[in-house]
Every structure is written in C-alpha cells, then in structure tokens.
Amino acid sequence: MPLPPLPLILAILLVILALAISLYFRVESVDAETAFEMVRDGAVLVDVRTPKEYEEWHPWNAVNINLFSKDFSRRIEELDRNAEYVVYCRTGHRSAIAVRKMRKMGLKAYNLKGGVRRMGVFVTRKRY
After folding, report:
1. Dihedrals φ, ψ of 58, to 5°?
2. Helix (H, G, I), strand (E, B) or coil at 105
3. For residue 94, which of 3, 27, 23, 13 has the smallest C-alpha distance?
4. Among 124, 114, 87, which residue's Cα sits nearest to residue 103?
5. Which top CATH class is 28-125?
6. Which of 26, 31, 42, 98 gets the most CB atoms within 10 Å of its CB?
7. Which residues make Cβ contacts (< 8 Å) with residue 6, sequence separation at least 6?
8. Listed residue (124, 31, 125) closest to 86, CA to CA
C-alpha cells in the first residue's frame, strides 16, 4: 500500500500541532455574569493592567497587580492559595497570560472573557 502524499501528511501534522498548542495554552475563562457571582461569593478580582489604566477605570474591589511589572511573580506568590481569583485586563489577552502563570503557581484563577468591556455593573469610574 503506497504512503499518502507528503502535503497530506504535513497538513495532518499541522492540525495535530495546532490542537496540542491550543490545549497547552487553554485558559479557563468565565463570562461577566459568572465572574459577578464568583466575586459575590468571595472570589478576588485581580486587575493586571498598568497602574495608569487601573486609576482611570476599575471595579471598586479589584486588586491591581500589573502583569508586566518586575514584581508580578512575587506578588502572585503572596496571594492566598485557598482563594479563587477572577483576573481581567482591557480585552482579556493580558489576563489570559496572567491566569496561565497563576495556575502554574497553584492558584485557582479564571480569565474574564472580553476584559473590562464586559464587566457592566462591576465597573466604576474614578471621580475627580
């Protein structure tokens, strides 16, 4: 029996590779309604945006831990291992990165799908 053509083999390998990568980088995400319920039940909101972004617009009860700060890992290490965390940024990209890091450190962290734009009643504006 002849072997399948090389392009078919390569295509199959690429599909397998893409699936493996997506599984490796998969992040557990929650929608705004679920996040709200989690926070109501005691989960901690973690804002991984810059301090400037945080000051401009943030939920009243969020903790700011900038993903790109030099002390991000140290600050994450200090978090309560028994708590649940809902992590957000502006769009959901930085928070997905943070959630992966937090889960590797043993924390129960969940990414807020869509970031602060999906938060609705969570969000307050800083008053001047």
Report:
1. -160, 155
2. coil
3. 27
4. 87
5. alpha beta
6. 98
7. none
8. 31
Q: What is the pTM of this model?
A: 0.75
Give the start-to-end residue ranges of the domains of the chain. 28-125
If we measure between CA atoms, which residue out of 26, 49, 27, 42 comes closest to residue 99? 27
- 51-96 pLDDT, tens digit per residue, is 999 998 888 789 999 999 999 999 999 999 999 999 999 988 999 9
Q: Which residues of 83-111 are buried (b: 16+ CB within 10 A; e: fewer)?
A: eebbbbbbebebbbbbbbbbeeeebebbb
Q: In this structure, which amino acid lies at residue 122?
A: F
Taking residues 31-41, what's their average pLDDT? 91
